[in-house]
Amino acid sequence: MFKIKAADGTNNLSGKKITQIRKSKKLSQRKLAEKMQLLGFDVDHYFIRRVENGERFVTDIDLVIFSRALEVPISDLLSAEDANL
User: Fold this and answer.
1) CB 16 within 8 A of CB 52
2) Could you tell me which of 12, 13, 14, 52 has the C-alpha nearest to residue 32?
3) What are the two backbone dihedrals, phi and then psi, of residue 59, each rounded to the nearest 5 degrees?
């Protein structure tokens, strides 16, 4: 089965941006997961790790919750230029 991947072989375009933003806000993966849980999204720090490492596909719902938890617009989580598309 064919699966669409980013140019670097990862399963999402947002993982690296999420990592950058999370670290700039001095949040651990565990703390980010806790913020997402408070927003009603049942995740743990393993989910965050898999997204940031590009191991997990990211849905539009995931992006909305990440943008709310990180307090940034969704557009900050995506960058086609970084993906070499």
Assistant:
1) yes
2) 52
3) -90, 170
Backbone angles phi, psi at 20, to 5 degrees: -60, -45
pLDDT, tens digit, 9 for 90 and up, residues 8-53: 889 999 999 999 999 999 999 999 999 999 999 999 999 999 999 9
Token output for 50: 């898999």
Measured distance CA(81)–CA(85) in Å, rounded: 7
Residue entry with tokens 């980010």? 32
State how far Cα 63 lies from the chain centre: 7
What is the pTM for the complete model shown? 0.88
CA distances from 13 to 10, 30, 34, 40 (A): 8, 21, 23, 24
